[in-house]
Amino acid sequence: MIALSLAEIASVVGGQTYDIPDPQVRVTGPVVIDSRKVEAGSLFAAFVGERVDGHDYARDVVDRGAAAVLASRPVGVPAIVVDDVQAALGALARHVVERLGATLVALTGSAGKTSTKDLIAQVLRRKAPTVFTPGSFNNEIGLPLTALSATDETRFLVLEMGARGKGHIRYLTGLTPPKVGVVLNVGTAHIGEFGGREQIAEAKGELVESLPAEGTAILNADDPLVRAMSSRTKARVLLFGEAADADVRAENVRLTENGQPSFSLHTPTGCSEVTLRLYGEHHVSNALAAAAVAHDLGMSVEEIALALSDAGTLSRWRMEVTERPDGVTIVNDAYNANPESMRAALRALVAMGKGRRTWAVLGHMAELGDESLAEHDAVGRLAVRLNVSKLVAIGGREASWLQLGAYNEGSWGEESVHVSDTQAAIDLLRSELRPGDVVLVKASRSVGLESLAQALLEGFENGGDAR
């Protein structure tokens, strides 16, 4: 964080200082909520969770070098006490970004947010110092923490914004007002909470409504609900996609023999070739969104194409590809899942597995509400239509719907199997995998299938080829 005195922080957040001998002591380290991440000069924000109360760690973090604790009650060590720690964290983030003078880029969407955020960050840091959301730290706590990690040298701040209901993105943009806003797509993630795609679009569009007139709304031309958001912003609109009228578009899209996308990138300033290191055609749209941001911020098409072609995966368990020494390829995409990302991952699996046996090891997709049965059934059916060799559905009711969809789609359904838990799937795969197989592992975060992917790599760590 930019260096601030404890007195200044207390003023910004409307807090009272307790047990602080010198209010001019400055916070020079990061703002953290995990006591294990405290460094010299840190500010530790003490949250009360379901199982852990951060206030209990106050003395320990100060003993290890924290400048003070941001707390909701006195803790017997230097502290700034506020009524609401989350609100105070947000107020501090707003103060810091106003001081920075950096360009804030915010993005949202139903699928692909984290991968796109990682691409944007990797492209922009070719131009200037860039800070970006780690992983999917995109909520009311994670977003302020990301903003607070910026320093005086930061020129671009790239922020992923998630939403589970109307008003969430409006709140986040109030904490960190963006100049550039990107909306990737409107899908069915969290549809059970929102009630429908139109309601999701209403919530996602809060991002473009927040933009200033001198800002830029970067919208997916290939998604009608996103394209329609152009009427909801006073900012300049820049379209990306494969549509002929997109300002930043891809032409001649194809996949390499490894399933990596290659295309001609067209911007208003020219054209250049891109071959991504990522897997799956769905990353073309993500790359175009990143290219549109970079174009808007002054990078040439040649610079953008080179940066995109060099960019890799920064966040764990998102199409993380490892080839074992025996030739089995594990695709760990277990971080999360929704119908759109499931379909994209299955298509990527098939592209990667040409001429090889392919396995789709899938768990349930959460928060689909009344659409859950139809969506799980559809994913199972799609696996058949794409000629995935084997489907392993893991879990309870939703997994049975996946398997049933595959079975009902045709005779291939006999190649599908429903197992009760992760260990049963591990046992099955260990006994049946053979050299050359490609295995996709994917489910909603709550299923925790990354442990299955790791189990399939155990004993191969020192010889595997991580790509």
Describe this structure in words.
- With 467 residues, this protein is an alpha/beta fold.
- It has helices at 6-13, 58-63, 85-100, 113-124, 142-148, 168-175, 191-194, 197-204, 206-209, 224-227, 283-296, 301-310, 339-352, 372-385, 397-409, 422-432, 450-457, and strands spanning 4-5, 16-18, 26-27, 31-32, 43-45, 68-71, 79-81, 103-108, 130-132, 156-160, 180-183, 216-220, 236-241, 248-255, 261-267, 270-275, 320-323, 329-332, 358-362, 390-394, 416-419, 438-442, 465-466.
- The strands form four sheets. It has a nine-stranded mixed β-sheet, with helices on both faces. A seven-stranded mixed β-sheet has the order 21-20-19-22-18-17-23, sandwiched between helices.
- The two termini are 33 Å apart.
Task: For the structure shown, list the relevant keywords.
467 residues, 17 helices, nine-stranded mixed sheet, seven-stranded mixed sheet, 34% helix, EC 6.3.2.10, 23 strands, ligase, globular, UDP-N-acetylmuramoyl-tripeptide--D-alanyl-D-alanine ligase, alpha/beta
Itemize the secondary structure elements and their pairings.
Layout: E1 4-5, H1 6-13, E2 16-18, E3 26-27, E4 31-32, E5 43-45, H2 58-63, E6 68-71, E7 79-81, H3 85-100, E8 103-108, H4 113-124, E9 130-132, H5 142-148, E10 156-160, H6 168-175, E11 180-183, H7 191-194, H8 197-204, H9 206-209, E12 216-220, H10 224-227, E13 236-241, E14 248-255, E15 261-267, E16 270-275, H11 283-296, H12 301-310, E17 320-323, E18 329-332, H13 339-352, E19 358-362, H14 372-385, E20 390-394, H15 397-409, E21 416-419, H16 422-432, E22 438-442, H17 450-457, E23 465-466
Parallel strand pairs: 4-5, 5-6, 6-7, 8-10, 8-11, 9-10, 11-12, 12-13, 13-14, 18-22, 19-20, 19-22, 20-21
Antiparallel strand pairs: 1-3, 2-7, 14-15, 15-16, 17-18, 17-23
Helix pairs in contact: 3-5, 4-11, 11-12, 13-14, 14-15, 16-17
